[in-house]
Amino acid sequence: MSRTVRRLLCSAAMAGALGLAVPGGSAVADEPLDCPRIAGICVWSEPEGEGELRLVFRGERVELLDPPGLSVQNQTEIPWCLHEAAEFGDGPRRTLAAGETVRELEIKVQSLYEGSCYGPTDQGAAG
Q1: Who's near 123: CB < 8 A, 6+ residues apart?
Q2: Per the domain annotation, does 11 fall within a domain?
Q3: Contacts of 111 (CB under 8 A, 6+ apart)
Q4: Where does the record locate the signal sequence feature (predicted)?
């Protein structure tokens, strides 16, 4: 086996191991829900945009969402951090991307704020 072929095979193996390879199928984004056009996000208490609707506007921080959110639609150009725990406590959290719709969340959202859950924009502990 030539040196070039070995390098290519090694590079492909490393890319796959690091998650850099193109996946076999691409993820399909959820279709938008019936959310009023606001500068914020819509949060519903049930999957598929059903149940009680809560509108959360840009700049707003929600420390306790009652009832918890199970579906969401972000109508802003920035991410939002969704926490399963009230008051941004420890536990599962998820970053909702700009413009993203999730018809059935994997967590029950009880607190949220503008910005990514991870990295320099993490504001969960900020007052």
Answers
A1: 61, 81, 113, 114, 115
A2: no
A3: 61, 62, 63, 64, 65, 83, 85, 86, 87, 88, 89
A4: 1-29
Say how many domains are in the chain.
1
For 18-29, write each residue's pLDDT tens digit.
333 333 333 557
Per the structure block, which two tokens stand in for 69?
A: 């959110």
Q: Are 59 and 44 in contact (CB under 8 A)?
A: no
Report pLDDT digits (tens) over 75-123. Answer: 999 999 999 999 999 999 999 999 999 999 999 999 999 999 986 555 5
Report the predicted TM-score, pTM, of the whole model to 2 decimal places: 0.71
